[in-house]
Design a protein that fits this description.
Elements (H helix, E strand, L loop, with lengths): L30 H14 L7 E5 L14 E4 L5 H11 L4 E7 H7 L1 H10 L4 E6 L34 H8 L3 E6 L3 H13 L4 E6 L15 E3 L13 H16 L3 E8 L6 H7 L8 H5 L8
Parallel strand pairs: 1-2, 1-3, 3-4, 4-6, 5-6, 7-8
Antiparallel strand pairs: 5-8
Helix pairs in contact: 1-6, 3-4, 4-5, 5-7
The structure holds iron/sulfur cluster.
Length: 298
Amino acid sequence: FSAIGEEREIDQDEYTPGIEPQPTWCPGCGDFGVLKALKGALPEAGRTPDETLTVTGIGCSGKLNSYFNSYGFHTIHGRALPVARAAKLANPGLEVIAAGGDGDGYGIGGNHFMHTARENHDFTYIVFNNEIFGLTKGQTSPTSPKGHKSKTQPHGSAKEPVRPLSLSLTAGASFVARTAAVNPNQAKELIKEAIEHDGFAHIDFLTQCPTWNKDAKQYVPYIDVNENDDYDFDPTNREEAAEMMRETENALHEGKVLTGKYYVDEDRPSYQQEKQQIGEMPEEPLAERYFDDDYDWE
Ligand code: SF4
């Protein structure tokens, strides 16, 4: 362990637990891509395992913090965000990473997602989006395409899928990106940027589920909209970002994968900063009070 704030070289192997288990994800699962990208991003962002908390929901994605050496909290279904919010408010020095699947985050925890974005809480949220409920064996999820057949929708889904990027922007997230497990370098860079961003940073991470979503071939190849000359938009411009998101979400339904950084607002204060401005939160971390024998709780 290092002292909080101490500057030293950080090796990504520090994020691998010294004790097994090995990941039990299926061979070829996109969840491995998230784990690898996260282990690459945190050292580059200068964060050590003892400065980091991973909070997960329920699902295959929820196993992330079992395979990751940091503080960890495996919550109940859809509730990673309120736990992450509380942890960050109590200890702003902690690097908080919330993670969960598309069913967990956009379905069961959809209400938390909307309000965490609206309030601009300062942490990173990675949604493993494989367009299916993987752990419970392949049911239709909020991002399954219309017409997708599963055990719960044997005649094909009659529902329009959630559009995560547009939803996030509309709700108020100040950093919105999409990446894919097939693109580990871009994924690492985007996670690093999300970690360094002050405010709610949402990454919709396309993770293939070869076991239960064999039709989802659309994850390869991808196009990076920030690098490709066919796409010209400014991620700091809300209207241009919204248009690019719509195009990206339509393209995915047609089998074309667009990824990249879609929106960033560096000027909007985080929830904690807003509370400090109105005098409801002290400058020092709340958690420090619990270790201060002389603190006057009156
Ligand atoms: Fe990954 Fe799907 Fe296997 Fe779950 S069921 S570990 S999401 S491939």
